[in-house]
Amino acid sequence: MRGKILSADFFNRPTLAVAKELIGKFLVRKIGSRRIASMITEVEAYDGFHDRASHASRGRTDRNAVMFGGAGCWYVYLIYGMYWMLNIVTGPKDYPAAILIRGVADASGPGRLTKFFKINHRFNSKLTSRSSDLWIEDQRMKIPQRLIKRGPRVGVAYAGQIWSRKPWRFYILHSNSK
């Protein structure tokens, strides 16, 4: 099934609203003539200069510069020297915000997700679009609101209690989850 590709306008809105609305959308990757698509099931928001869990909390750097750019661009970086993390930039230019895509129906966890979709640094700063071979589609999947849950972000204890406990992770509650 194919849906409407989300444009930069979709991402040029408040980060938390975009994060919640990404649940149920589809991450799509084109590799040659092959098309891989999977429903987004988990995301985390990183919002603004003061968010201590955000790469932008200490200002602009070579690594995070794409977060200060236009909405709808990919922010891809390596952690632990082995896992690529896929983020989509949100909000207005010069305001650093992005959403980490943590999981899809076919791959749970951000490192597994990028491995599944064969995503690496070459996508960093590219616009989400067919021309970049990586985009997000709205296939009109309706997820009941009662199944979309909020919780604290994962692995950000270094940001301190206030920031690590922010309920800025959105995910689909599965029937076997608590």
Key phrases:
alpha+beta, 178 residues, 3-methyladenine DNA Glycosylase, Chain A, 10-stranded antiparallel sheet, 10 strands
What would you note in describing this structure?
- Strands 1, 2, 3, 4, 5, 6, 7, 8, 9 and 10 form a ten-stranded antiparallel β-sheet that branches.
- The protein has a single domain (4-172), classed as Roll (3-methyladenine DNA Glycosylase, Chain A), CATH 3.10.300.
- It has helices at 8-11, 15-22, 110-117, 161-164; strands at 4-5, 26-31, 34-47, 74-79, 83-89, 97-104, 107-108, 134-138, 148-151, 169-172.
- Strand 4 and strand 5 (83-89) form a beta hairpin.
- The protein is of the alpha+beta class and 178 residues long.
- The protein contains four helices and ten strands, in the order E-H-H-E-E-E-E-E-E-H-E-E-H-E.
Give a quick rundown of the structure.
The protein is an alpha+beta fold and 178 residues long.
- The low-confidence runs, each spanning 5 or more residues with pLDDT under 50, are none
Treating each run of at least 4 consecutive H or I residues as one helix, how many helices?
4
Order of helices and strands: EHHEEEEEEHEEHE
Compute the separation of the termini in Å.
31 Å
Proportion in β-strands: 25-35%
CATH topology: 3-methyladenine DNA Glycosylase, Chain A
User: How many structural domains are formed by the residues?
Assistant: 1
What fraction, in percent, of the residue positions are helical?
A: 10-25%
CATH-derived architecture: Roll
Structure class: alpha+beta
CATH classification, class level: Alpha Beta
Strand tally: 10
**Main β-sheet: number of strands, strand sense, barrel status?**
10 strands, antiparallel
- Overall outline: globular
Average pLDDT level: 92
Radius of gyration: 15 Å
Tell me the name of the CATH homologous superfamily. Methylpurine-DNA glycosylase (MPG)
